[in-house]
Amino acid sequence: MKDEPNLELSEIFYSIQGESSFVGYPCLFFRLAGCNLRCSYCDAKYTYEEPASLIPLSTLLNEATRYPKAIIEITGGEPLLQEGVYPLMEALMAAGRTVLLETNGSIGLERVPQKVVKIVDLKCPDSGMHEKMHLANLALLTPHDEIKFVLSSAADYDWAKAMMAEHHLAERAKVILAPVIGRLQPALLAQWLLADALPARLQLQLHTLLWPGMKRGI
């Protein structure tokens, strides 16, 4: 492919989708390198601490053809830091693939193709990054998109609940509440969710339950 872009990749792997409304489906993951945030609970520091592999767009598209029925998730790090992510999304959509984009909520979504499922991780205060959020993104979300709150504490839960109310988030997109394992007990979060009857989904990381102790390639 003439003048094709190269993308910096941390890893490519085929696994079970574990953290969205598509949980449980076979999924091909393109984990792009680099991140502009430093969340306190980050479980993918290698995306910005270790050297990346420079991979041509055509190679990624060829890899996608090996798994013709799989969902494709583009994640990171923060994938929107790389200019090449836009032609990657466009090419995958043109091929008729279901594409998920997991983004940290700090970069504008204006250039993301509308049919891409945007999974926006709206950072809570205990992440240390909540003031970095680009809240104008919320107006760009559609009902097939998702907003994820990763919660470390009761304070995070209260903040997420307030954000849901202030911005009418459940009317804009699907809302997911996910506890940081080791910081917030899932059963406690379930109690809060039931008590408040929030229009949100409680979600654990399915891949960490299937393959405990593994940090990559899942």
Question: Mind explaining what this structure looks like?
Answer:
By secondary structure, this protein is α/β, with parallel strands linked by helices. The protein has a single domain (6-208), classed as Aldolase class I (TIM Barrel). The protein has 7 helices and 9 strands. The protein has helices at 46-49, 57-65, 85-94, 154-167, 169-172, 186-196, 206-210, and strands at residues 6-16, 26-32, 53-56, 71-75, 99-103, 117-121, 146-151, 174-179, 201-202. The chain has a 9-stranded mixed beta sheet. The longest helix has 14 residues, at 154-167.
What share of the residues does DSSP label as strand, in percent? 15-25%
Morphology: globular
Low-confidence stretches: none
CATH class: Alpha Beta
Short description:
The protein is of the alpha/beta class and 218 residues long.
How would the blueprint of this fold be written?
Blueprint: E1 6-16, E2 26-32, H1 46-49, E3 53-56, H2 57-65, E4 71-75, H3 85-94, E5 99-103, E6 117-121, E7 146-151, H4 154-167, H5 169-172, E8 174-179, H6 186-196, E9 201-202, H7 206-210
Parallel strand pairs: 2-4, 4-5, 5-6, 6-7, 7-8, 8-9
Antiparallel strand pairs: 1-2, 1-3
Helix pairs in contact: 2-3
Question: Could you list some keywords that capture this structure?
Answer:
7 helices, single chain, TIM Barrel, 9 strands
